[in-house]
């Protein structure tokens, strides 16, 4: 006998593949085993038993007929004797073989081999998609992930959290989802609802105490599973090779079934016990006709009918499989019932090969799909990330990162984390929280534990706020800094922060609702005093006017976009500080002249060429600081003398060539910066500035300094670097409080010994070439080096 183990290789597959074998594949597999046994049994008999037994037949003549008649009459008188053929054993064997080859019908000869071949083809066809490289790799990856997801502690934890929900809440959730489904149009609800999943009404019952415990290693494994599932889904949903291969092998089996039934039912009656044989071997045996007996005809006949029945069952099962394949939408898979059952509402529907494999899994055990669905949910993934984040960032670790910010607040800065650790809310001493590039985070009500929190900075973070968290921030937050690139990163909840005092916004804003983000009304911010906007506005938003009654400082950085309309500035009558930077202004806006409480004005990096309007600043009696730096101003008008209240004036980085003497009539000036211009001469009227403490003319073309400059005895910082000076007046000794002197980049050959009288000047405050410093007497050098 041929051992059955020899045929196992045709149907062997990994045990894990059984999850992709629905009941019909299992049933046909057993049918194939039975048919294989029939084929093997028939082949064994064919090999081991005599196939056919033949005897020669005499050809009757007329004389022999008469003698035969007479013998019949007298038969009762004579004893019957056998016919002698005079054939030996070798001749009989030869006759049997010749008649087997020539007279026996081919179906009777090859029936067991046909059964064996057809069965092996069936078995190979049924398992081909498990062996083909293009499909087997996907199947192996899928089953590997499926088993890991099924056994993952995170799956148990996620489902146990659902199982512990209030039944009334679940019922309300289900009813709301049902109403939504009823309201959907037929086109929207075309995804097939997996029937098999409806047979899982029960919750997964687990010990919630044990399910809530997930160590760091298990958390990392679950995180890796989420990534694998995500990448696998993107890869598998692109094609439908698995679906097409399964369809093709099913169609092939149906065609083969029809072929087998057709020719077997026609030829089964050819298996006969008696066979007449006529072969031209008379010269070797003396006979031409033989009567043969097919010894296995009776058994083969019964086996063939049995085989036909098995093939019929196999074929009907394949027809059912074809119906299932073609009349059900197997390239789409809906997790609707799982969403209702688990309460995880963001589980996405899938398509193509991914959907097909899930349909196949449902035929094995729908519980696999339910547990696997947990790893398709972003909500579930975010919960896991949060859990892992809490493991990585303990309260002790966060407390070590606390530092004091420039406003003397205790600050925690978190950069590029996958979420916001819950342990942050255990730092009750925290006063400032700075988050950078943290996305898809929900701030829970636990933020209310941070009773001292006053400052929040969000740089490119997309946050969602719990209602209780908004209520807490509404009452406690004083400073909010936001840097955003799109609407997802813009906190729409900020408008209700009624106790907010400082708001800093950096990102694309617009006054047009169809473009970017529109700044809505800020009227709820009753305490807002400082507003800073770094954006690309073309006009001052009307929403800012809503806080004009209490806004004291307004900073607008426009990143080079031309600011066309500034009329709304007139309404900000309480402004004390105004900064309009990089707004491509060509003239000083007239609206500024209405701000009677203005104390500081900064028009840095605009396109100002003429500032004749400066005369109107005389109405701003409180203006003490004017910064017109980084522009293209060619000259300073004489009207500058009208600004008698100025204490700080910055004209650096312009194109000024001549300093008008009227400039120095602003005798309250304490800070004057004229660096990076084309100035060649400093008028002697500079000596009028007896309050001057800071004077800079760095990077100009000055060749001489007026002696009157050294009469400004309160100067602490004097910057004369990068000019064309060759002599430093000995009157430098008059500047007894000088602590910073910059001389580097000039044409000095020697420094005056009178520098020794500047007792407050140290070596670190003297910016000069080392060789030039060495020209000073040693005692003066030692005096300066002594800190």
UniProtKB/TrEMBL annotation:
Task: Recall the taxonomic lineage recorded for the source organism.
Answer: Eukaryota, Metazoa, Chordata, Craniata, Vertebrata
Whether Transmembrane helix counts among this entry's keywords is: yes
Subcellular locations according to the entry:
Cell membrane; Endoplasmic reticulum membrane
| PROSITE patterns named in the record | LRR
**Top-rank taxon, per record:** Eukaryota
Which reactions is this enzyme annotated as catalysing?
iodide(out) = iodide(in); chloride(in) = chloride(out); taurine(out) = taurine(in)
Q: What is this protein called?
A: Leucine rich repeat containing 8 VRAC subunit C
Q: What is its main location?
A: membrane
Family in the record: Belongs to the LRRC8 family.
List the Pfam families hit by this protein, alphabetically: LRR_1, LRR_8, Pannexin_like
Which BP terms does GO give this entry? monoatomic ion transmembrane transport
Q: Which UniProt keywords apply?
A: Cell membrane, Disulfide bond, Endoplasmic reticulum, Ion channel, Ion transport, Leucine-rich repeat, Membrane, Repeat, Transmembrane, Transmembrane helix, Transport
SMART domains (UniProt xref): LRR_TYP (SM00369)
The reply on keyword Flavoprotein is no
Q: Which SUPFAM superfamilies match?
A: L domain-like
